[in-house]
């Protein structure tokens, strides 16, 4: 018995020593920090004396969300431009400084010290920077048991973490955040192992595009919309870039073969939690839909969710992307809403570089070959990310290939990569290889039991058979004026648009009528003698959640 007790005692002592040796080390491995709220940037939030406060004057609005996770719609058949102001939920976003980590992580715990009265909420989104330099999408923290606590599981190991405060208020006492604590647990060895360095192209889908308009309004990331602006909106805040940044950019190609690279600076159309480009199980909402199918498209064409969006409105079109006026009119030469091909550039592994014109221009011309005299086949907006596939030439004569038959000067980006391969011989500018329209990937297949059909093939005018059928049914229109614009484009440079001709016409179809698609030919920049631009409110009327600048109804998601 004595020997047994002595053995137990030795085991107890040994266990205590091991615990003393291991526990502090394990605790030290978790990186914990408190971001400086005063160093954050965003809209709808002001920081006073170290406290982040909801600011109704600059908040952006979104229709009140249905709390059902199943996606059941609320009653009503309102359109996107006619949201009841009583249903608007003003929302503020504050992007906090990022924090580099000594060890990779896949899991971030968060604690917010908040004051949130009934009718207001306070939450946080988290994202991480991958080893290849790209960011994961923003992931809302899942609330924990303790007040203000949450946890975010990132899709892969990251070595830098960033948080974004999300505040909403429908009246009464606005919410405040007095402090944020983030803690990144070290990833396991298997989680921290980098994926093989194989380049993969970004996800690419054919979706319906509408014009954003709303000149003078404010986007969900705080950008003030300028005339002929160059950005896009996607219906999820998971891919919303901070103001002036290009962390999430897209390549949009029209049926007329012109393409544009632009940053994602707003949220919409229709939905605000529809990251349809992600695999179905990873979607924030509408997990029953095939990857690549926007919910508004499924509702409009196939009656998904009773034919309504997440806010209970009947979409007037199947749009999955909104285009700033400069992208819509000037870059793509569209005269009306159209089916387009969209590459979601952050989802690929090809090296991305940021376009920088240093304030001299709003864009950089994309040429059909590495020659300034070759045809212009599109634009890359200032601050957009572009995929650098290879380089050609050296010094001032260096060019970057950013797509098949798409080249920009190497000095057009902030820092041209030095470790990408040299391009092979460029195809002639007028060869089929350089002028071929981008091809859409195979349409996502239907799931058994789904009432969702894939897109009908688009014809040469970018109009699908389903849209033509909708024309006979008299789809609802929400714009008060034509989508076309008779004004001169901002780019009337000497090397500009040698592949285009006439200016956009003054068609009579409304901007958001999905049944009247763009002609196949691309209108070029308007002549300097064209009449002045109409001062419309854009394709969607603005909602006014507070006393600040006018906002469109679904500008930002609510938690």
Measure the end-to-end span.
62 Å
Percent of residues in beta strands?
Answer: 25-35%
Describe the largest sheet.
11 strands, antiparallel
Report mean pLDDT, rounded to a whole number: 75
Number of strands: 26
Quick recap:
With 559 residues, this protein is mainly beta. Helices cover 11% and strands 27% of the residues.
What does this structure look like?
The structure is a single chain. This protein is mainly beta. It contains six helices and 26 strands. It has helices spanning 2-29, 189-192, 295-302, 325-331, 432-435, 465-473; strands at 31-33, 41-43, 45-48, 51-54, 91-95, 99-115, 120-129, 139-140, 142-143, 149-169, 176-186, 203-211, 232-234, 249-253, 259-267, 319-323, 338-344, 352-354, 363-367, 376-381, 385-387, 390-392, 399-403, 406-409, 542-543, 551-552. Mean pLDDT is 75; it is low at 1-28, 66-86 and 431-559.
Strands, helices and their partners?
Elements: H1 2-29, E1 31-33, E2 41-43, E3 45-48, E4 51-54, E5 91-95, E6 99-115, E7 120-129, E8 139-140, E9 142-143, E10 149-169, E11 176-186, H2 189-192, E12 203-211, E13 232-234, E14 249-253, E15 259-267, H3 295-302, E16 319-323, H4 325-331, E17 338-344, E18 352-354, E19 363-367, E20 376-381, E21 385-387, E22 390-392, E23 399-403, E24 406-409, H5 432-435, H6 465-473, E25 542-543, E26 551-552
Parallel strand pairs: 12-16, 13-15, 15-20
Antiparallel strand pairs: 1-11, 2-5, 3-4, 4-11, 5-10, 6-10, 6-11, 7-8, 7-10, 9-10, 12-17, 13-16, 14-15, 14-17, 18-21, 19-20, 22-23, 23-24, 25-26
């Amino acid at each position: 018995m004595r020997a047994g007790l002595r053995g137990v005692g030795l085991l107890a002592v040994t266990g205590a020593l091991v615990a003393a040796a291991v526990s502090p080390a394990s605790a030290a491995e978790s990186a914990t920090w408190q971001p400086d709220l005063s160093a954050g940037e965003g809209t709808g939030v002001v920081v006073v004396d170290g406290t982040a406060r909801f600011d109704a004057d600059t908040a952006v609005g979104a229709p009140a969300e249905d709390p059902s996770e199943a996606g059941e719609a609320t009653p009503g058949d309102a359109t996107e431009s006619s949201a009841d102001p009583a249903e608007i939920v003003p929302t503020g976003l504050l992007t906090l400084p990022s924090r580099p980590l000594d060890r990779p992580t896949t899991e971030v715990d968060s604690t917010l010290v908040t004051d949130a009265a009934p009718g207001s909420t306070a939450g946080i989104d988290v994202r991480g920077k991958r080893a290849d330099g790209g960011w994961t999408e923003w992931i809302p923290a899942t609330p924990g048991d303790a007040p203000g606590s949450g946890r975010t599981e990132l899709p892969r190991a990251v070595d830098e973490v960033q948080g974004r405060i999300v505040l909403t208020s429908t009246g009464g006492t606005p919410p405040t955040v007095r402090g944020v604590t983030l803690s990144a647990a070290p990833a396991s060895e298997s989680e921290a192992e980098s994926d093989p360095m194989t380049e993969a192209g970004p996800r690419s889908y054919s979706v319906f595009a509408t014009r954003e308009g709303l000149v003078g309004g404010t986007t969900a990331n705080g950008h003030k919309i300028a005339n002929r602006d160059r950005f896009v909106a996607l219906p999820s805040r998971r891919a919303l870039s901070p103001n002036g940044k290009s962390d999430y950019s897209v390549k949009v190609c029209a049926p007329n073969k012109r393409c544009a690279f632009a940053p994602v600076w707003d949220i919409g159309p229709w939905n605000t939690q529809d990251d349809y480009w992600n695999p179905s199980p990873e979607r924030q909402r509408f997990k029953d839909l095939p990857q690549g199918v926007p919910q508004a498209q499924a509702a409009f064409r196939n009656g998904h969710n009773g034919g309504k969006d997440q806010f209970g409105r009947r979409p007037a079109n199947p749009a999955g992307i909104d285009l700033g006026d400069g992208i819509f009119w000037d870059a793509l030469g569209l005269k009306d809403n159209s089916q387009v091909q969209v590459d979601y550039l952050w989802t690929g592994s090809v090296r991305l570089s940021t376009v920088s014109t240093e304030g001299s221009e709003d864009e950089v011309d994309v040429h059909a070959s590495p020659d300034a005299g070759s045809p212009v086949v599109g634009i890359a907006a200032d601050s957009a990310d572009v995929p650098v596939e290879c380089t050609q030439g050296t010094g001032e004569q260096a060019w970057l290939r950013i797509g098949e038959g798409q080249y920009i000067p190497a000095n057009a980006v902030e820092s041209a990569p030095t470790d990408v391969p040299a391009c092979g011989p460029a195809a002639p500018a007028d060869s089929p290889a350089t002028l071929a329209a981008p091809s859409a990937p195979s349409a996502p297949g239907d799931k058994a039991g789904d009432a969702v059909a894939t897109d009908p093939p688009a014809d040469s005018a970018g109009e699908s058979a389903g849209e033509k059928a909708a024309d006979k049914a008299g789809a609802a229109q929400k714009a008060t004026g034509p989508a076309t614009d008779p004004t001169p484009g901002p780019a009337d440079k000497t090397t500009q648009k040698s592949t285009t001709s006439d200016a956009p016409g003054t068609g009579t179809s409304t901007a958001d009528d999905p049944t009247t698609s763009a002609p196949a030919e691309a209108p070029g920049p308007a002549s300097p003698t064209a009449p002045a631009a109409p001062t419309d409110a854009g394709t969607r009327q603005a909602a006014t959640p507070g006393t600040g600048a006018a906002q469109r109804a679904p500008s930002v998601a609510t938690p």
